Amino acid sequence: MERTLNQPLALDRTVASIMAVALFTVLTALGAFVRIPLPFTPVPVTLQVFFVLLSAVVLGRKAAISQALYLVLGAAGLPLFTGAAGGLAHLLGPTGGYLLGFAAAAWAVGSITSKYRNTADMILALLAGVAIIYAAGAVQLGLLLHVGVARTLQLGVLPFIVGDLLKAAAVLAVARGMRR
Length: 180
What we know:
Radius of gyration: 17 Å
Number of strands: 2
Shape: globular
Number of helices: 8
Distance between the termini: 35 Å
CATH topology: Arp2/3 complex 21 kDa subunit ARPC3
C-alpha cells in the first residue's frame, strides 16, 4: 500500500506514549545545555525546570518516566547533564539533588494536572513541582557544602525563584494554548 504525504499517520497509543516520553527526555537534556553559571553558587540557571514541568503537563504521571530515563542515561555516562557532564558522580554532586527532584516533581505535577485542568490547580501544581525540585536540591546542596539553612537558601533557592516562576508561567501559557 502506498502512502502519500497528505495522509495522516496513525500511531498506536503505546508507540505514541513511548515517543512522547523519549521526546521529553531529550528536551530535558537539551535544557541542560542552556546553562548560565552564577559566580556565587555551584548551581547554574538552566531550562531544565521548564521541560520538567512541561513534560508533566503534557504526559501526566508518565513524565516521571521521561525524567527517570534522563537520570539513568546521564548516570550511565552520557553527557546529558549541565556542562555536558555525565556519570553517577554528577548525581552525587551539588546539583544532583535538583536532578533527582525532577522525577518526583514530574510525577507530582503530572498527577495533579491529569485530574485538575483549571488554571488555579495548574498554577498550584506547577508551584508544587518547583518546590519539590528546590527541596530535593537544597537538601543535598546544604549537606555537601556543610552550610546551614540560610546559606543553603542563598546558594540554591533564592537566586532561582524569579526565573523558575517565569518558566512555570511559560508552561502554563503553553498548556492553555494546547487546550485551544
